[in-house]
Amino acid sequence: MYFQHVMGLFSQPKLEWKVIKDERHNIIQLCFIRLSILVAIPAVALFFGVTQIGWSFSGDEFHTFPIMKALATTIVFFFSMLVGALVMAYFIFWLEKTYGANASFKRCLIFITYTALPMYMAGLVALLPIVWLCVIVIMSAAFYSLYLLYVGLPIFMEIPEGLGFMFATSIIMAGLCTLVGWLAVTAVIWANFIM
Questions:
Q1: CA distances (Å), 75 to each of 44, 47, 71, 145, in order?
Q2: What does the alpha-carbon distance between residue 113 and residue 53 come to, in Å, rounded to a whole number?
Q3: On the CB side of 125, how many CA atoms lie within 13 Å of its CA?
Q4: CA distance to 60, 85, 118, per residue, from 124 (Å)
């Protein structure tokens, strides 16, 4: 059923959001299995990319990481993305009271997991860690995630579309704040451990 959601969100997102909304989820299965697997995709791809091929800005000159440094970076990257997803789920849960949605933290976590699905899948590009290529692919995935957010929020949270637009925009603002915090942590880790 899970992989049908992946294909459905890419082929017919409005119908798939209705199916996801009606499905019953176990929080352990969702958080520790599905979300962990999705978060592991870019982390593991990055590990193999920087240790086997090496990273590059232009695609000409590649620099490999030592395995222990890459492993430490992968673990930190994995947990920071997991925490980021949980923080976003909390922001949505906190905001839903303002917009009159009938959701629980579990439903907010389900929503953010499926909304961020394109970005997790796009993490496979880290197998070939050329910076410009990664930026293009991740930005494309981010735009599709935004589309899923705007399309899915009114359906999943059962609120009017106009209110869903404002709710989704508030989620984006919270996401940008989370992203800035994540980038600051990444910069500190990069400066102190990687370089």
A1: 9, 9, 6, 24
A2: 29
A3: 19
A4: 20, 18, 11
User: Above pLDDT 90, what percent of the chain?
Assistant: 16
Q: In which band, very low, low, confident or very high, does the pLDDT at 1 lie, cut at 50, 70 and 90? A: very low
Rounded to two decimals, the pTM is 0.85
Q: Of 109, 110, 141, nearest to 125 (Cα)?
A: 141
Three-state SS for the chain is CHHHHHHHHHHCHHHHHHHHHHCCCCHHHHHHHHHHHHHHHHHHHHHHHHHHHCEECCCCCCECCCHHHHHHHHHHHHHHHHHHHHHHHHHHHHHHHHHCCCCCHHHHHHHHHHHCHHHHHHHHHHHCCEHHHHHHHHHHHHHHHHHHHHHHHHHHHCCCHHHHHHHHHHHHHHHHHHHHHHHHHHHHHHHHHHC
Structure tokens at 104: 């629980």
- Residue ranges per structural domain of the chain: 2-194
